[in-house]
């Protein structure tokens, strides 16, 4: 639990650094001091971000959206859920989205397919896959050994499938 809390706090810190760097204000240097000047009616930059799925790993971003941090930094962020890396990649390549949050598999498939227009990935933004193991019934004393001899389905159409 302590590690998860640390990871969430680290993610929030990273997001706040990102947002700090997004200011589009001008700085005028006077004789000995710098004055901050903000344009009166600056039009926000419209950015479409297509996330592969809603994830707890993006919690700092969701907080930033709800607290209007993007608007305060002149970014009109439109959040779209792609419901799959294949669909998110298609949105980015077609110009429907400016940014795609997804794993690297769609980029690898696109690059290996010979595409002249492929995306650049920023790896390990979350440090972990956003996968969760769930059961139909409560298992308070769960052990990984409980999975021996069981069929576990993972993934979805168009994604990276896992079958144990």
Folded structure, characterized:
The protein has 164 residues and is α/β, with parallel strands linked by helices. It has a domain at 2-13 and 42-128: D-Maltodextrin-Binding Protein, domain 2. 30% of the residues lie in helices and 18% in strands. It has helices spanning 2-20, 59-66, 69-72, 85-94, 105-112; strands spanning 26-29, 34-37, 45-51, 75-81, 99-101, 153-154, 162-163. The strands form three sheets. It has a three-stranded parallel sheet with strand order 4-3-5. Helix 1 (2-20) crosses helix 2. The longest helix is centred in the N-terminal third of the chain and has 19 residues, at 2-20.
Keywords:
two-stranded antiparallel ribbon; 3-stranded parallel beta sheet; 18% strand; 164 residues; alpha/beta; D-Maltodextrin-Binding Protein, domain 2; 5 helices; 30% helix
Write the layout of secondary structure elements.
Layout: H1 2-20, E1 26-29, E2 34-37, E3 45-51, H2 59-66, H3 69-72, E4 75-81, H4 85-94, E5 99-101, H5 105-112, E6 153-154, E7 162-163
Helix pairs in contact: 1-2
- Supply the number of helical segments: 5
Overall SS class? alpha/beta
The average pLDDT is: 76
Oligomeric state of the chains in view: single chain
List the strand order in the largest sheet.
4-3-5
Give the N-to-C terminal Cα separation: 27 Å
Q: Count the E strands.
A: 7
Write down the CATH class of the domain at 2-13 and 42-128: Alpha Beta
Beta fraction: 15-25%
Q: CATH homologous superfamily of the domain at 2-13 and 42-128 - what is it? A: Periplasmic binding protein-like II
Helical proportion, percent range: 25-40%
Main sheet record: 3 strands, parallel
């Amino acid at each position: 639990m302590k590690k998860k809390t640390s990871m969430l706090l680290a993610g929030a810190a990273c997001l706040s650094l990102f947002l700090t760097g997004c200011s589009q204000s001008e700085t005028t240097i006077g004789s000995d001091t710098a004055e901050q000047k903000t344009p009166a009616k600056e039009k926000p930059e419209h950015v479409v971000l297509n996330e592969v799925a809603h994830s707890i790993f993006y919690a700092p971003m969701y907080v930033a959206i709800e607290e209007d941090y993007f608007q305060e930094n002149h970014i009109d962020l439109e959040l779209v859920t792609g419901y799959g890396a294949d669909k998110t990649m298609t949105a980015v390549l077609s110009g429907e989205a400016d940014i795609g949050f997804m794993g690297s598999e769609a980029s690898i498939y696109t690059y290996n397919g010979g595409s002249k227009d492929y995306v650049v990935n920023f790896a390990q933004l979350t440090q972990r896959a956003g996968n969760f193991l769930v059961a139909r019934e409560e298992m308070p004393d769960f052990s990984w050994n409980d999975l021996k001899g069981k069929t576990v389905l993972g993934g979805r159409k168009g994604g990276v499938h896992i079958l144990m």
